[in-house]
Amino acid sequence: MPDPDPESDASEVAVIVREAGLEDVDRLAPLFDGYRQFYRQSADLEGARGFLAERLGAGESRVFLAETEDGWPLGFVQLFPSFSSVSMRRLWILNDLFVAPDARRSGVASALMDRARQLAIETGAKGLILETESHNAPAKRLYEDLGWALDGTDHYELLV
């Protein structure tokens, strides 16, 4: 689920977005844990570290980290690869987007979303998909401002 409270029109700060690797797990984990807590999960910093290390170590996701010029982590986006059978092309699932509360409304989420779009272009993907909670108005506004559109499908889930 993407960012709980992205920015829209606030002043922007200098943000560096780069691909994260295993060496960044300790810096990413507090952000990832904060993201999970927004979605009503219990704090679990060790679990967050383990999950990220497994995904990055196995090459199962791509994570981009936004940080200040001096390396302070501001937010991240995590994407999982998938495929569109109909178009026979790669598709990226933008699964997680989070900006630290004190960095919101400063251009961080837009920079992360732009980098995700760039990944789709670089890999020749059909595009990106995401979902967010229906009441997440700030996130929905950001996505629409960046050119995202509802796809008209109904999503179902089967939890096991």
Largest sheet: 5 strands, mixed
Name of the CATH homologous superfamily: Gcn5-related N-acetyltransferase (GNAT)
Radius of gyration: 15 Å
How big a fraction of the residues is strand?
15-25%
Name the shape in a single word.
globular
- The count of domains is 1
Notable characteristics:
160 residues; alpha+beta; Aminopeptidase; five-stranded mixed beta sheet; 4 helices; 5 strands; 32% helix; globular
Structure, described:
There is one protein chain. This protein has 160 residues and is of the alpha+beta class. It has a single domain (16-145), classed as Aminopeptidase (3-Layer(aba) Sandwich), CATH 3.40.630.30. Helix content is 32%, strand content 22%. It has four helices and five strands. It has a five-stranded mixed β-sheet, with helices on both faces. A hairpin with a 4-residue loop joins strand 3 and strand 4. Helix 1 crosses helix 2 (45-57). The longest helix is centred in the C-terminal third of the chain and has 15 residues, at 108-122. The radius of gyration is 15 Å and the shape is globular.
Can I get a quick summary?
This protein is of the alpha+beta class.
Write the layout of secondary structure elements.
Layout: E1 16-19, H1 25-38, H2 45-57, E2 62-67, E3 73-84, E4 89-99, H3 108-122, E5 127-129, H4 137-145
Parallel strand pairs: 4-5
Antiparallel strand pairs: 1-2, 2-3, 3-4
Helix pairs in contact: 1-2
